[in-house]
Amino acid sequence: EAGVTQFPSHSVIEKGQTVTLRCDPISGHDNLYWYRRVMGKEIKFLLHFVKESKQDESGMPNNRFLAERTGGTYSTLKVQPAELEDSGVYFCASSQAETAPGELFFGEGSRLTVL
Amino acid sequence: AQSVTQLGSHVSVSEGALVLLRCNYSSSVPPYLFWYVQYPNQGLQLLLKYTTGATLVKGINGFEAEFKKSETSFHLTKPSAHMSDAAEYFCAVSDREDTGNQFYFGTGTSLTVIP
Q1: Contact with chain B for residue A110, Cβ under 8 A
Q2: Do A106 and B44 touch (CB under 8 A)?
């Protein structure tokens, strides 16, 4: 069974440009999460989808970040325009609908560098 | 809001020595507790978790952790370090009352194993 996959693994862009990160969750997982780790700091929650609906987006930093999950399958996270402080590793995780706590499956992360 | 403290961003141990990675949480109600590991170029992998029951939890690769309510701690240990244990370790908590299963992570501890 394929795990959570994220693309790209690494993106280097200039300030003001746009970047779109993609996450493909494990097939059948209704819950999809985005997290971010800024260098040296903790991994922080960004938002949570249940199928195609945003369940909780309280962690989104500002309106330059837009997450979508059309059809309840893969998800994209767009940063537009990117700022220097957006640099970090963006993790995606998924889980089944009725799951014991902690059964989150993480992808390898997408490292974003904004110059 | 929950917070997680991992003492020591970098820990070095000799091969065969005891591994002790510390984690404390702040919550009046004991949360669900987890340890995740990230090996180089890989995603976060669940090592072990505590949800209920026995406070000493055994995980993969010989790791275990003990939940101590009085100390609000969930330290990770392994009796004998192996070179393959070199990785970054994250402690995380999830609120028992949060059906969204949002995780709060510590800043991570990078473990180096010296031959």
Answers
A1: no
A2: yes
Query: Is the CB of residue B109 less than 8 Å away from at least one CB of chain A?
Result: no
Whether the CB-CB separation of B57 and B67 falls below 8 Å is answered with yes
- B74 to chain A, any CB pair closer than 8 A? The answer is no
CA distance B20 to B13: 9
B107–A41 CB contact, under 8 Å = yes
Length in residues, chain A: 115
Characterize B75-97 residue by residue with b for buried, 16 or more Cβ atoms within 10 angstroms of its Cβ, and e for exposed. Answer: bbebeebeeebbbbbbbbbbbee
Tell me the C-alpha distance between A22 and A14, whole Å. 19
Q: List the 28-87 stretch of A: residues with Cβ below 8 A of B.
A: 31, 33, 35, 40-45, 48, 55-56
- Interface contact flag, A44 B41, Cβ < 8 Å: no
Report d(CA A19, CA A65) in Å as an integer: 10
DSSP element (H, E) containing B94:
strand B87-94
Give the pLDDT score at B1: 66
Distance CA A25, CA A81 (A): 26
Series of mean pLDDT values for 10-residue runs along chain B (115 residues): 88 97 87 92 90 91 94 96 96 77 89 96
